[in-house]
Amino acid sequence: MKKLPIICPSCEHGLEVSQLSCTNCDTQISGNYGLPFLLRLSTEDQAFIFEFIMTSGSLKKMADKMGKSYPTVRNKLDDIIEQIKFLQTEN
Amino acid sequence: MKTILFNPFEKYTAEKLILFGFLLTVIGIILGVSFSARFDGVLDLHFVTTKVNYVNLITDISINILCVTITFLIGAKIINIKTRLIDIIATVVISRSPLYILSVFNINNYMGKISETVLQDNNLNLESNIEFSAFDLTYMVLFGLIAILTSVWHIALLFSGFKTAANAKGTKSIILFITAIVIAEILSKIIFYNIN
């Protein structure tokens, strides 16, 4: 799967969606749509959130699965929460 | 290997670390008695010429663990209220292991006797009458270097454990870490002074 670019390679500003298209009938929609918070996180953070949901939000299970200690996994979650809060204030 | 030696807290569960730390503590007590070492302070290791028994060592290590656990828990809770006591205990018991290794260097109470000689000399200045052999000096220098290395390892383990337990970042965290160690050292010294 192709990686969705979220940062402008030229000026490093956050990118927005300007065009959407239907692969079935070729309809194209143009406009400026901001990316949702989750998509503005790094691929690694998105994978972490995915795992978090798949383990029903159990950090202990996640720690076992990742081969990390509980505080390491909890710290990662806290860092992601801080990042989302920052993105929220930025908007 | 680097993770196991300097930051095992990132990988292993607190339960495993406490169990391993408890085993290391038992080894530390046995080594302390065998090599006449006293851990009379959070960062201290002294070799004595008097007889050291198991009660001395259990008391020493228990006081040190308790002092660091209290001050670290307070410091860590200031940084992150979600810090668990179990992670702090794991940090404290594991990080003490380098100090236990150091006690092995007092073979036949060699370092203890040297310390006693130095302390008994009342004219400890440039005109001191103490004469050390080349072997004594080499041994002291070597011991000094190993003591520095083990102390650095001890502090590095304490810091990585504190950092992981509290998700500590930035200058404020470093200041709280240093403050916690200094207060723990003072606290332990006051306790040792009162019980001895």
Note the topology.
The complex is a heterodimer of chains A (91) and B (196).
Chain A: E1 17-21, E2 28-33, H1 43-54, H2 59-66, H3 70-90
Antiparallel strand pairs in A: 1-2
Helix pairs in contact in A: 2-3
Chain B: H1 2-6, H2 14-34, E1 37-38, E2 46-47, H3 54-79, H4 85-95, H5 97-102, H6 110-120, H7 134-166, H8 170-195
Antiparallel strand pairs in B: 1-2
Helix pairs in contact in B: 2-3, 2-4, 3-4, 3-7, 3-8, 4-7
Question: Kindly state the mean pLDDT of chain B as a whole number?
Answer: 91
Radius of gyration of chain A: 17 Å
Work out the helicity level of chain A.
40-55%
What is the terminal separation of chain A in angstroms? Answer: 29 Å
Record the strand order, biggest sheet of chain B: 1-2
β-strand amount of chain A:
5-15%
Major beta sheet of chain B, specifics? 2 strands, antiparallel
| Arithmetic mean of pLDDT of chain A | 91
Adjacency order of strands in the biggest sheet of chain A: 1-2
Any low-confidence stretches of chain B, pLDDT <50, length ≥5?
A: none
Q: Return the string of H and E elements of chain B.
A: HHEEHHHHHH
User: Can you count the beta strands of chain A?
Assistant: 2
Q: Describe the largest sheet of chain A.
A: 2 strands, antiparallel
Categorize the overall geometry of chain A: elongated
Largest interface: A-B, 11 and 13 residues
Strand-pairing-aware structural class of chain A: alpha+beta
Order of helices and strands of chain A: EEHHH
Radius of gyration of chain B: 18 Å
